[in-house]
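#lab-general

N.A. 3:47 PM
ok so I finally got the sequence cleaned up, no stray characters, all 305 residues accounted for. can someone with queue access submit it? mine expired

B.Y. 3:52 PM
send it over

N.A. 3:53 PM
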Amino acid sequence: MDVLAEVLRVSGARGALGVRLKAGGSWGLRLDSSPGAALHVVSRGTMWLHVPAEKPLQVRAGDAVLVSPGTAHGIAGSADATMGSCDRAAAARAFGDGRALRLGSAPVLTEVIVLRYEQDPEVHTPVLTSLAQPMHVTARENAQLGRTVELLAAELAQPQIGTTAAVNSIVDLLLVQFVRAWLARNPQEQAGSWLGAMRDPVVREALTCVHARPERPWTTETLAAATNVSRATLSRHFRSALGQTPGAYVTQWRIDLACVRLRDTEEPVESISGAVGYASPHAFSRAFRRARGTSPGEYRSRLRK
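B.Y. 4:20 PM
back already:
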């Protein structure tokens, strides 16, 4: 099983095209924080990323930079540019008709594709928040990312039949490319994160078991047996990689799955409890209340008001 693919599917981590920017001369754009992560892909020229309390970061053609959810930032044509507010009306028009939003003055020297990644707020297993903020990946560092950027730019430059489907797929592919690049970096910045745990073969094997069969009565002992290590070894690896016990992770993932099903289906609570690994609705309700502060039935009702 591809654990990352499964978590991205359940967590609803999906990308969406924001707007294309064409800029020249002196320009700067201040972007408010948002619940989603922001990805800026430079297809031509050079852009500078400005994050409060951080040194301006230069991003060149073929590079991309991912800004974590909730981070206010700015993009500009120079390290000392003055930031202006985003013209939301112009941005909305550009998004609606597919045209590029023009900034600064002619001639155009820089072209940027602005993307957004959202994650289902009801799912607490972190994926996007695992990535460093901000994370800069260069075309030289990751050739596949550079080729993906070129493909996205080409699709947007010459729209044709199937372009919308192609762009959606490329945007999601960009996230996978970022994850791969991040995993190839210094392990020290990955400690305690969900994505970093994928580097630990013991934890990765255990997570594969849990995600493939969440309904099984997993315990630290049964997970240790499934991964051919001792109970103490499995617990030690989980604490080091994720900062939690195997049992805590199993519960977190089961509750995430339950939340999605409670919201998106008409399945009875009794059916959901068994599907996510609880022996009885009572045990499920008790675990759910500890995790979400409410009963499964109350949770479902609140989301559907």
